[in-house]
Design brief:
Shape: elongated
Helix content: 55-70%
Organism: Viridothelium virens
Order of helices and strands: HHHHHHHHHEEHHHHHHHEEHHHHHHHEEH
Largest sheet: 2 strands, antiparallel
Distance between the termini: 112 Å
Region (Disordered): 498-530
Keywords: Cytoplasm, Cytoskeleton, Microtubule
Strand order of the largest sheet: 1-2
Domain Gamma tubulin complex component C-terminal: 326-758
Domain Gamma tubulin complex component protein N-terminal: 2-316
Structural class: mainly alpha
């Protein structure tokens, strides 16, 4: 029987233990099956049967996991369980057997009697350890997971989940479990560090188990190449979001450097290879200093040191600071409307394109142009942008504007992709910036269109696609406000709407009875039209004032001040700080560019590495979205409704001008259109204008009311414009030894509301 017990503990099936391992269910049946065993002996054999059964289960699980699991870490842990812990248990079984055979007094008593209790006591301490190991193997086994939704395959345990589970088990109160968990944690973290070293040292995804690594490649829709992104779900808990971002940046940089080295000359390539070998040795030493159990601070220091070393020795050639600043300036000038002539020219060309499309439209009552428009083609959008570039190039007499040339190469007007065409990216920064700017992407044309920028390598290391999308939303938001301002201002340039045109009759015709009668008729007609349009002009004037002040506040104060604050941090200029524009009222249509475009030309005393600049840039964007109120859904909805009401009222007023010109031709010159009743159309159009005026007045009240609510909310929280509504940290730790970036903090909405209150009082006094 002792041989049977020892063989079963070694992992072999045992007929003896099959009859007793369920004896706690039916004691009588076990007694009948084994009448020679007493009750205490059967209880001892039950304990042995449990240990033997756990041993068999562990052996089966570890073989399956080590042979087929997709995770390298899980396979390494399963192999360690079998090769270390099960092997250690097997050695202990052999040691007990050796004691029995050699009649060791520790196992053999008087008269060569081997007590069964002493044999069981040798192995009962393994039961708790085997149960815990079985739970770990069950956790790693895919058959115990739920099916993925919409997939035929079962999800398997990831390396991050296993590492987190093992590290949690280190807090147990059992010394043997803690010791086992510590050993397996060391194995798991060592395997994970080997995967990490492939990416951090060489810029390549691990060949074994790449789908379980925290960095994944997102294939492009065309199938040519792809983009790397971090998957937060595959990061162990000791990897912070900042460390994960640095890991992604290091690997992407090495991948870009490898691609960039193919375009270098042979001599430069050999020098670069020698530098890479030296850096490889240094970086591998830094990574080897990370010991298990890994702490977040320890890993962060190693990754930061590698990132800084890579930035100072290699990335300065790949991503020089002047080039980074040039691309940032490009975003500021063309997306944030720092170059005002670009926005004005683009709006004029887009409206001209819309006018050409509407030449053959019906003469019946018109709805607002954006309500139902014809979908423009890509070629038409490219033609509008090409004409805009031509006009801007004509303004540059010297032809030395490098930013304009770069913008022509990188900027595009495109139709937004359909939701089903958008790739699902697991990037951790894809949801950092929640904006409602997409509400305004259909204002410029009759259908949604977006201004985008292509990201050439290696600048995609610095800017992500999601950040360019944020700039696109901000651009659509600002373009909508600028267009509303220009269209309202152009109403005052329509001479027939505001005064007699052409001029009244003069002598000698005005001295004749017919001439005097004609003058009286025309004066009465002009007086009647002026009275009918008086409220409309008052409402349009108030709308122009409101839109102009909001545009000036957004562009002249928030964007310009925050941009200059960000640029000062990048360049670390030793010169005196530039003056702020908080107390100045800037023209939103013609913004002076001298201070902004010349700012990045200062020499840097302590240049930051690209990854630190990228992190600070994301903080800058988050603050800008909050300051521009793009994160407030109610305000953006009210503002979008206001822009729609402005377009609708202008469309009706323009239609009224055409109708009144036709009526004047009919009354003065006798030009009659028998197919159209212009008097009826005039009455209907005036009715629609009055309705549109009331809608516009309500829209203005809604916008101002929401501004007051936001001001009250922010005063209640004690927050200014430098604080995001999402509560994100507004300081970026500069781990390169420079000054840390602190987001711009400006004044509150009270400045804008004071101007609006002053303007409303002035309008009431004039009325």
């Amino acid at each position: 029987m002792l041989h049977e017990v020892l063989l079963s503990l070694s992992g072999h099936p045992s007929a003896l233990l099959e009859a007793v391992k369920h004896q706690h269910v039916h004691d009588s049946q076990s007694q009948e099956a084994l009448p020679s065993l007493s009750l205490p002996e059967r209880d001892l054999l039950v304990s042995v049967a449990r240990i033997a059964d756990l041993h068999l289960q562990l052996d089966t699980h570890t073989k399956a996991i080590s042979g087929s699991h997709r995770s390298v870490v899980c396979r390494a842990v399963a192999t360690a369980i079998k090769s270390q812990h099960l092997s250690r248990f097997q050695d202990h079984v052999l040691e007990v057997e050796r004691r029995i055979l050699t009649r060791d007094s520790r196992s053999v008593g008087a008269y060569d009697i081997v007590p069964l209790a002493s044999i069981v006591s040798e192995f009962e301490a393994w039961e708790r350890r085997f149960q815990w190991l079985r739970d770990i193997c069950t956790f790693m086994s895919p058959e115990n997971k739920q099916h993925l939704r919409g997939s035929d395959e079962q999800p398997q345990c990831s390396s991050a989940q296993l590492i987190n589970r093992l590290r949690k088990s280190l807090q147990t109160g059992y010394p043997d479990i803690q010791e086992t968990a510590n050993e397996l944690t060391k194995v798991a973290e060592t395997a994970w560090l080997r995967q990490l070293s492939t990416w951090v040292l060489y810029g390549r995804l691990p060949q074994d188990g790449p789908q379980d690594f925290c960095v994944q490649i997102q294939n492009s829709p065309t199938g040519s190449g792809g983009d790397f992104s971090i998957v937060p779900a595959l990061l162990p808990k000791y990897v912070t979001s900042v460390t994960g971002s640095s890991i992604l940046f290091i690997g992407k940089s090495l991948d870009q450097i490898r691609a960039y080295s193919h375009t270098m000359e042979e001599q430069s390539r050999s020098i670069g290879a020698a530098v890479e070998l030296k850096l490889l040795h240094e970086h591998s030493q830094l990574l080897s200093e990370v010991k298990s159990p890994i702490s977040a601070a320890q890993l962060s220091r190693a990754v930061s040191s590698i990132r800084l070393s890579l930035s100072r020795n290699t990335l300065q050639e790949l991503l020089p600071l002047p080039k980074i600043v040039q691309h940032l300036r490009l975003l500021q000038e063309f997306f944030l409307l720092g170059r005002g002539e670009f926005a004005s020219t683009l709006i004029i060309e887009a409206d001209s394109h819309a006018s050409i499309q509407d030449i053959q439209s019906s003469h019946h009552r018109k709805a607002p142009r954006n309500a139902a428009g014809v979908l423009p083609k890509e070629g038409e959008l490219n033609a509008v942008l090409a004409r805009t570039w031509s006009i801007l190039s004509a303004m540059d007499e010297d032809g030395l504007d490098e930013d304009l040339e770069l913008a022509q190469d990188l900027l595009r007007l495109n139709l937004p992709p359909q939701p089903q065409d958008l790739p699902v990216s697991p990037s951790e920064h894809s949801s950092d910036h929640q904006s409602n700017g997409k509400l305004f992407n259909d204002v410029l044309f009759s259908a949604p269109c977006v201004l985008t920028m292509q990201l050439p390598a290696p600048f995609d290391l610095f800017l992500s696609k999601s950040e360019v999308d944020v700039y696109t939303d901000i651009n659509a938001y600002l373009i909508a406000l600028r267009r509303a301002q220009l269209r309202l201002a152009n109403l005052w340039k329509q001479t027939p709407l505001r005064r007699d045109h052409p001029h009244p009759l003069g002598p000698p015709a005005s001295n004749l009875p017919y001439g005097q009668q004609t003058l009286r008729t025309r004066q009465e007609r002009r007086r009647s039209r002026d009275n009918a349009m008086r409220k409309v002009w008052a409402t349009c004037g108030a709308a122009l004032f409101l839109v102009s002040e909001i545009t000036s506040f957004f562009e002249g104060e928030i964007i310009q001040d925050s941009w200059q604050h960000f640029c000062r941090w990048i360049t670390q200029s030793t010169e005196s700080s530039l003056p702020r524009f908080a107390g100045q009222e800037l023209s939103s249509s013609f913004t002076t560019q001298a201070s902004i475009t010349s700012l990045p030309q200062h020499k840097s005393t302590a240049p930051h590495d690209p990854e630190t600049i990228s992190t600070a840039h994301r903080t800058f964007l988050a603050t800008l979205i909050s300051s521009l109120l793009l994160a407030d859904a109610k305000f953006t909805s009210e503002l979008r409704a206001l822009v729609t009401h402005i377009d609708g009222l202008i469309a009706y007023v323009t239609r009224l001008q055409a109708i009144q010109q036709s009526l004047d031709l009919e009354a003065d010159e006798g030009v009659v259109d028998a197919l159209t009743d212009y008097e009826k159309e005039e009455r209907n159009t005036l009715l629609e204008i009055d309705r549109g005026r009331k809608r516009l007045d309500g829209g203005m009240k809604g916008v101002v009311g929401r501004l007051r609510e936001l001001d009250a909310e922010r005063m209640g929280r004690g927050a200014g414009f430098g604080i995001t509504s999402m509560g994100k940290a507004q300081e970026v730790d500069s781990r390169d030894g420079g000054i840390q970036y602190e987001a711009w903090r400006g004044g509150g909405l009270d400045r804008l509301l004071m101007k609006l209150d002053f303007g409303s009082v002035t309008v009431e006094d004039q009325d």
